[in-house]
Amino acid sequence: MKTRRVPITISISPEMTREYEKLARQQAKNRSQLFRDMLYLYKEQVLEKEFCELQRYGSNLAKKMGIITEKDVERLVFKRY
């Protein structure tokens, strides 16, 4: 199955346009491919930030619950109710 592409229009300053064109040439990519790559990297960055925030939240919650070591985690996971 052929991938369908949808054209989009964005507005950027002339200076940013020159930088974008220069970057595309340096990377030997057309503007569309460069935009797709930039979007992919941005999405990765956002997901990594979300993961770190969740990890920090979980760590803080564990500390409040007195869960510090792997043994504490195992005790909680294998606790019989």
Q: What do you see in this structure?
A:
The protein has 81 residues and is an all-alpha fold. It has one domain (15-77). The protein is 68% helix and 0% strand. The chain is built from three helices and no strands. The chain has helices at 14-26, 31-64, 70-77.
Keywords:
81 residues, elongated, 3 helices
Strand content: under 5%
Largest sheet: none
Please trace the helix and strand order, writing H or E for each element: HHH
Shape: elongated
- The pLDDT mean sits at 93
* Distance N to C terminus: 52 Å
| Percent helix | 55-70%
- Secondary structure class reads mainly alpha
Unreliable spans are none
The number of helical elements comes to 3
Radius of gyration: 23 Å
Write the layout of secondary structure elements.
Elements: H1 14-26, H2 31-64, H3 70-77
What is this entry, summarized?
This protein has 81 residues and is mainly α. It is 68% helix and 0% strand.
